[in-house]
Amino acid sequence: MALLVLIYLFVFVCATLSQETYMTFVKHTLRWAWPTLLGPARSVRSRLDCAIHCLQSFPSSCHGYLYNESTKICKPSSGLSPYSSPEPSDGDFYFNDSQSSYPDFRHHTLLNETQSVSAYAGYFTKPLTYTEAQATCQSMHSHLFVAKSVIKYFLFLNITTKEYSDWIGLDDLANEGRFVWADDGQEIDVYMKSYLFVSPQPDGQRNENCVYKTSIHDTVKALTFNDANCSLTFSYVCEVDLSLI
């Protein structure tokens, strides 16, 4: 009798833990970033089995899974990335959302003789418009990179490459001529504006309301800032507020 009670308790505890595990994954609508897959697809009996399979097979990297209710196909995921591509047959995505659920992000630090600066950021070379890039960052709980100091600007240069033009989180979309940072809407100060731009930039020509870092192939001096039409497509850096880490 005692053995039967122990077996019952064991089964009950396992079922409870499985249900709690199942509930940590919430159905997530995908638009700007998509699941990065872990291993091959697998046929399972239920969504609960898919969650358990993901966690048992990839205990340190499982942050979600795709599950097709019709086909019973399960695809474990390490999180979301703009580099991934959705498949119509994938089914629904269930996500345990946390900062570690975005595998393209990492810590970046720059030191000089007198100061240091850090950022938790991801660099994405798949070109997007300014609005698309900002929306993609926001879907990953981040914003376009901001460079409010000289050392932060050099960190941005370290993260990116001189071969590409890259959006920075700075625009005058709300008020023409008043360039503000994407994280808090603070206007760029006079010193940084003169440091980052080469005169006569920003010139505001042809609806140029969004700012990017020039490449070595640009007609404007390389590795400086320039305003451009927001519908152009460039690489970009997403940055997470360090207070959220």
UniProtKB/TrEMBL annotation:
CDD domains: CLECT. The keyword DNA damage does not apply. It comes from the Eukaryota. Keywords: Signal. Residues 1-18 form the signal peptide. Residues 123-239 form the C-type lectin domain. Transmembrane segments: none annotated. InterPro entries: C-type_lectin-like (IPR001304), C-type_lectin-like/link_sf (IPR016186), Ca-Dep_Lectins_ImmuneDev (IPR050801), CTDL_fold (IPR016187). This is Uncharacterized protein LOC106078340 isoform X1. It comes from Biomphalaria glabrata.
